[in-house]
TrEMBL record, chain A:
Family: Belongs to the peptidase T1B family.
Subunit structure: Component of the 20S core complex of the 26S proteasome. The 26S proteasome is composed of a core protease (CP), known as the 20S proteasome, capped at one or both ends by the 19S regulatory particle (RP/PA700). The 20S proteasome core is composed of 28 subunits that are arranged in four stacked rings, resulting in a barrel-shaped structure. The two end rings are each formed by seven alpha subunits, and the two central rings are each formed by seven beta subunits. The catalytic chamber with the active sites is on the inside of the barrel. Component of the proteasome complex.
Catalytic activity: Cleavage of peptide bonds with very broad specificity
Gene: PBB2_1
UniProt subcellular location: Cytoplasm; Nucleus
Role of this protein: The proteasome is a multicatalytic proteinase complex which is characterized by its ability to cleave peptides with Arg, Phe, Tyr, Leu, and Glu adjacent to the leaving group at neutral or slightly basic pH. The proteasome has an ATP-dependent proteolytic activity.
Major localisation: cytoplasm
GO molecular function: hydrolase activity
Keywords: Cytoplasm, Hydrolase, Nucleus, Protease, Proteasome, Threonine protease
Segment forming the signal sequence: none
Cited SUPFAM superfamilies: N-terminal nucleophile aminohydrolases (Ntn hydrolases) (SSF56235)
Full protein name: Proteasome subunit beta
Hydrolase among keywords: yes
Superkingdom of origin organism: Eukaryota
From TrEMBL, chain B:
Keyword presence, Cytoplasm: yes
Gene name of the encoded protein: PBG1_1
Localization of this protein: Cytoplasm; Nucleus
Name of the molecule in the record: Proteasome subunit beta
Similarity section: Belongs to the peptidase T1B family.
Length: 273, 236
């Protein structure tokens, strides 16, 4: 029987060809590379005018804090932001990818992006990779149909909620929400509640820490409050700081530039075609 | 008594729990200790028993709350019964206080853990003796500590943050109960093995009081719960 050459569509997904080699290397004693996880507290809630998202700023690599002040609230569209927990590279890549897709879609349709569009793009991608893309997201935004808040799990399932928490500190943050959330919060009450929830994660969960980032999205307006609260400032041994008492006398000053200052002429040599 | 692993005694070691109780939450307040637990006993993922008393007074000065395997809890109650009985038989005017009972439980739990045959419980021991309030916890692996507020199981993740934030010295009885109810409500929403039938008990210098069980009010009227797909008909 002749082999029929059917043109199969290119196989997507991960290639597991190197798994056997990796297993063999591990048995021989090679320690596998650890990856940067965000071990996180991320939250979102719907208030009277829109959506408020919050996140802590600690990125961990096993037991070590790799980044003390990373950004976990990612831009998706002018009216949509997304918090990410799980493997840092996965959350960055997936939100970046969907953000570009949304931009192209905006050009194509000439309209403001909708939150459900971002939701569907993200969940289709994550389901396709069967949970191997380890990104747990809290997606929030305000579009023509109103404010929306969704959670997306690494395997691709989604929930629509009035308040949501994800990450290792999600239980601590959820305990704050479950006891204090009510509908129709004002902007200040909402920000206060989001901060309280993130602080519960920061102080009670070892995978979360450092500062609190907040993002407020309302109809036609967004506010990204980076490091809105900094409850863990760097402290120094001497509370007064350092002062250098005896001022050194300046006898003479000479400045020698290490490189020659070159004048750049506009419209210089054009590049070769 | 063969205690090392051979085929006979292997089948007699506790390997997994069968009927389990969920979290216990307790805190110190002005007059003593307040403790709360629900009355459910789960058999795996079935809610088998809905009237299990998981809070018991021990002697004159202590209250014991247990989560984990119910049969091991009942065994511990028998050990403590014997302990208190012998203490009473001395008839010397002295009685075992919460610190002593806690220490006894710690030794029992740790010793069983060392024999690889643990009592599968997390115990909360609280009491007042001579004006001194005491609240401690022992684990199935023998971890013990004392603090102003403790919780077992999922309570550690869901209620300790609330307690760390809102507990303060000199809570009145009403404030304490309100705080415990807040904690039990969060557990009711977010712990799959929780039952809406909670029991609160208090222990003061005068003695222990177990209040009758009641259920908490819950709120399900959020707009997003009623209509999650507004603006995107057909999605989920």
């Amino acid at each position: 029987m002749a082999k029929s050459s059917i043109d199969l569509p290119p196989k997507g997904g991960f290639s597991f060809d190197l798994c056997r080699r990796n297993d063999m290397l591990q048995k021989k004693g090679l320690k596998p590379q650890s990856f940067l996880k965000t071990g996180t507290t991320i939250v979102g809630l719907i208030f009277e005018d829109g959506v408020i998202l919050g996140a802590d700023t600690r990125a961990t690599e096993g037991p070590i804090v790799a980044d003390k002040n990373c950004e976990k609230i990612h831009y998706m569209a002018p009216n949509i932001y997304c918090c990410g927990a799980g493997t840092a590279a996965d959350t960055e890549a997936v939100t970046d990818m969907v953000s570009s897709q949304l931009q192209l879609h905006r050009y194509h349709t000439g309209r403001e992006s909708r939150v459900v569009t971002a939701l569907t793009l993200l969940k289709r991608h994550l389901f396709n990779y069967q949970g191997h893309v380890s990104a747990a997201l809290v997606l929030g935004g305000v579009d023509v149909t109103g404010p929306h808040l969704h959670t997306i799990y690494p395997h691709g399932s989604t929930d629509t909620l009035p308040f949501a928490t994800m990450g290792s500190g999600s239980l601590a943050a959820m305990s704050v929400f479950e006891s204090k959330f009510k509908e129709g919060l004002t902007r200040d009450e909402g920000i206060k509640l989001v901060c309280e929830a993130i602080l519960a994660g920061v102080f009670n969960d070892l995978g979360s820490g450092s500062n609190v980032d907040v993002c407020v999205i309302t109809k036609g307006h967004k506010e990204y409050l980076r490091n809105h609260m900094q409850p863990n400032p760097r402290t120094y041994v001497n509370p007064k700081g350092f002062t250098f008492s005896k001022k050194t006398e300046v006898l003479a000053t000479t400045i020698t530039p290490l490189k020659e200052k070159v004048e750049v002429i506009e419209a210089g040599d054009a590049m070769e075609e | 008594m063969a205690s090392n692993s051979d085929s006979v005694s292997d089948t007699q070691r506790t390997l997994y729990p069968y009927v389990t109780g969920t979290s216990v939450v307790a805190l110190k307040y002005k007059d003593g200790i307040l403790m709360a637990a629900d009355m459910g006993g789960s058999y795996g993922s079935t809610l088998r028993y809905k009237s299990i008393d998981r809070l018991r007074p021990i002697g004159k000065h202590s209250l014991l709350g247990a989560s984990g395997e119910i049969s091991d809890f009942q065994e511990i109650l028998r050990y403590l019964d014997e302990l208190i009985l012998y203490d009473n038989m001395w008839d010397d005017g002295n009685s075992l206080g919460p610190k002593e009972v806690h220490n006894y439980l710690t030794r029992v739990m740790y010793n069983r853990r060392n024999k690889f045959n643990p009592l599968w419980n997390a115990l909360v021991l609280g009491g007042v003796k001579n004006g001194q309030k005491y609240l401690g916890m022992v684990n199935m692996i023998g971890i013990n500590f004392e603090d102003n507020h403790v919780a077992t199981g999922l309570g550690n993740h869901l209620t300790r943050p609330i307690l760390r934030d809102e507990w303060h010295e000199n809570l009145t009885f009403e404030e304490g109960v309100k705080l415990l109810e807040k904690c039990m409500r969060v557990l009711l929403y977010r712990d799959r093995s929780a039952v809406n039938k909670i029991q609160i008990s208090k222990i003061t210098e005068e003695g222990a009081t177990l209040f009758p069980p009641y259920s908490l009010k819950t709120y399900w009227e959020f707009a997003a719960f009623k209509n999650p797909t507004v603006g995107a008909e057909g999605s989920w």
